[in-house]
Specification:
By secondary structure, this protein is an alpha/beta fold. It has one domain: 3-Layer(aba) Sandwich (Rossmann fold). Helix content is 38%, strand content 22%. It is built from eight helices and eight strands, in the order ααβαβααβαβαβαβββ. The protein has helices spanning 2-9, 11-15, 37-50, 64-81, 87-97, 113-125, 146-159, 182-185; strands at residues 26-31, 54-59, 101-105, 131-137, 162-168, 193-200, 203-210, 218-221. Strands 3-2-4-5-1-6-7-8 form an eight-stranded mixed β-sheet, sandwiched between helices. A hairpin with a 2-residue loop joins strand 6 and strand 7 (203-210). Helix 3 (37-50) packs across helix 4 and helix 6 (113-125) packs parallel to helix 7 (146-159).
Length: 231
């Protein structure tokens, strides 16, 4: 029951919709530096972990210790958000789900899709359940990543894995004619879902840029916890 309550209260369920997290091939969380892309991606991953799915988190920015800390903090924020929870129940759920999150740390030089493919193949060889989503945090979308997207699309076909990426926008860049940041505009035909995070006074506004009939919906988040602010 606690797992379902946490999923229901997740900022991801309130914005994207839990049932939509894996509907398609690619999703993107976009913001300028320091606004909360990684924290929101972690909340996306937590919804899947709470659904007893596996998650592969690939970071080009954080080491493994930092990745694990982000998940621990994200889980605590979600537990605190729903109100009083028996601490022992919260710990038991965390112990149950945390082993289903697998992190890989790269840098821009060592990042290699073929290594990720080999890693996913190892799940199959060992007859383990495959991750349902992959988070890739830290790709440089100021460079041409077309070939990377091509290879990720092959992974989607081969392993049925939905990939969420972070896209860093820049403060002084103008939006394109359709309202997309340039980083998304370049790849909009590939990306099925896109969430734009932008600071508004002392809050963060999460705007759905792409997601079928949910496009243009928005909500406010607490920048310290990434939880929904009820207004």
């Amino acid at each position: 029951m606690l797992k379902k309550d946490l999923i229901f209260k997740s900022p991801v369920s309130k914005t994207i919709g839990f049932e939509n997290v894996r509907d398609g091939k690619f999703g993107a969380v976009i913001s300028r530096a320091g606004v909360g892309k990684t924290s929101f991606l972690v909340q996306i991953a937590l919804t899947q972990l709470l659904n007893d799915d596996k998650v592969l988190h690939v970071s080009l920015d954080d080491n493994m210790e930092k990745i694990n800390l982000r998940y621990s903090d994200g889980y605590k924020n979600l537990v605190n958000y729903i109100g009083y929870v028996d601490p022992q129940k919260a710990v038991r759920v965390w112990e149950d789900i945390k082993s289903n999150e697998v992190g890989i740390s790269y840098n821009e030089t060592t990042f290699d899709i073929e290594k990720i493919r080999d890693y996913l193949k190892s799940f199959k060889k060992s007859d383990f359940a495959l991750p349902t989503i992959m988070i890739i945090d830290g790709l440089n979308f100021d460079k041409d990543v077309t070939k990377i997207f091509d290879k990720l699309e092959q992974l989607n076909k081969e392993f049925s894995i939905f990939t969420w990426v972070s896209m860093k926008s820049h403060r002084d860049e103008e939006l394109c004619e359709d309202g997309f940041p340039i980083q998304l505009e370049t790849h909009k035909d590939r990306v099925d879902k896109a969430i734009f995070l932008q600071p508004v006074k002392d809050k963060i506004e999460a705007v759905i840029l792409k997601d079928g009939d949910r496009t243009d919906q928005q909500c406010r988040l607490d920048p310290a916890t990434m939880m929904i602010i009820d207004e």
